[in-house]
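Structure in, sequence out. Go:
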């Protein structure tokens, strides 16, 4: 099973003041322990996470946080012409900001579930991909 992880999930995992911090921790624990689950991260998400963590005051530990992507075998999907084509198609179907369209296009291209805490994003994305919160995903495991 393939899961595309949105920026909101990573930020919630690393920021203990976030409402869903504990649920996100449980999600990552289970997903990383399950050999049948493959985590996919759009390249854009790496940059968004770095930006948000820096603004939250975690700039000095940014390399440590970002090493999590590599250390846990997460597949980082780079920009490509194939992703661009998927993005262009989905942009005609959904009313989302560019970054969310890229994440959604990555999920579509990867035939993956999309994980996010952003309810509006999930509502729109679910028109073209399977999309849910990490806690909803855990309930179905």
């Amino acid at each position: 099973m393939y899961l595309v992880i949105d920026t909101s999930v990573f930020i919630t995992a690393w920021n203990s003041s976030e409402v869903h911090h504990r649920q996100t921790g449980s999600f990552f624990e289970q997903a990383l322990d399950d050999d049948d689950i493959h985590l996919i991260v759009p390249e854009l998400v790496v940059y968004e996470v770095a930006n948000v963590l820096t603004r939250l005051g975690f700039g000095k530990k940014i390399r440590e946080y970002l090493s999590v992507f590599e250390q846990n075998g997460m597949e980082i999907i780079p920009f490509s012409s194939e992703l661009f084509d998927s993005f262009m198609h989905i942009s005609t179907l959904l009313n989302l900001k560019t970054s969310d369209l890229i994440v959604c296009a990555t999920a579509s291209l990867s035939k993956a579930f999309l994980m996010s805490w952003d309810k509006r994003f999930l509502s729109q994305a679910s028109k073209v991909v399977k999309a849910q919160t990490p806690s909803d995903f855990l309930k179905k495991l």
